[in-house]
Design goal:
The chain is α+β, with helices and mostly antiparallel strands. It is built from 3 helices and 7 strands. It has a 5-stranded mixed sheet with strand order 5-1-2-6-7. It has a two-stranded antiparallel ribbon with strand order 3-4.
Length: 223
């Protein structure tokens, strides 16, 4: 009497392999999405901490937004932010460091100001619409083929509204296929913006205060 074999046939094995491959194909994008959402949340948390530290700095310095022409990051570190880690976005793939001369800095101060490379040196009462004005945001730089971060503590790091600024700036956001970017506003709230809305510098139906986003003095006043 013949006994029935319990081994897999070649067809059954191939079916199992195909099923596993399909499941992996479904799981990988979901896992990647979860990872990206986690990085976006950490990015927002970093900006919140930068906002808290900046607010404390302003209280100690009569509302003056850092020293004109100075490196704004070193005015927060180490007194108001003891670790350089907060200055590094989770989307910045460089190796973390606490070396004052070379620690990665991912966030930039609004680069459209009256005192050189950024708005450092103005007082908070000069910002007409703090709820709309971007104070700090991820500051990416562009090469011919990629978009990446390059800020370090020895150079003032700035962020700009457009991709045509000399020196190279980001051509897309940090997440959601570069369609979104987070930002800290001058009233110290943080928000996630579409890349299109981030670049706006004039009113639209959806963004009524966009003309205050990059110009602290408002419409008609040179940035």
């Amino acid at each position: 009497m013949k006994t029935k074999s319990s081994a897999f046939t070649l067809i059954e094995l191939l079916v199992v392999i195909v099923i596993i491959a399909v499941l992996l194909g479904i799981a990988f994008p979901v896992f990647s999405t979860v990872q990206e959402k986690g990085r976006a949340t950490q990015d927002l948390n970093n900006l919140r901490q930068l906002g808290i530290a900046t607010g404390t700095y302003l209280n100690d310095n009569d509302g003056v937004i850092f020293t004109a022409g100075g490196i704004w990051m070193t005015q927060l570190h180490p007194k108001y932010l003891p670790s350089w880690k907060i200055f590094q976005s989770p989307f910045d793939k460089r190796t973390a460091s606490e070396v004052d001369a070379s620690a990665p800095v991912s966030y930039g101060l609004n680069g459209h100001g009256a005192n050189g490379p950024n708005i450092a040196g103005i007082t908070t009462d000069q910002i007409v619409r703090p709820t709309a004005y971007i104070l700090i945001a991820p500051a990416q730089t562009r090469s011919s083929t990629s978009v990446a971060f390059s800020g370090i503590p020895t150079v003032p790091v700035t962020v700009y509204k457009a991709a045509s600024v000399p020196g190279g700036t980001a051509v897309g956001g940090t997440h959601n296929h570069r369609t979104r970017i987070n930002a800290l506003f001058a009233d110290f709230h943080v928000d996630s913006l579409s890349w299109k809305d981030f670049l706006l510098d004039s009113d639209s139906n959806a963004q009524a205060d966009a003309n205050y986003r990059w110009n602290y003095g408002g419409p008609g006043v040179p940035p």
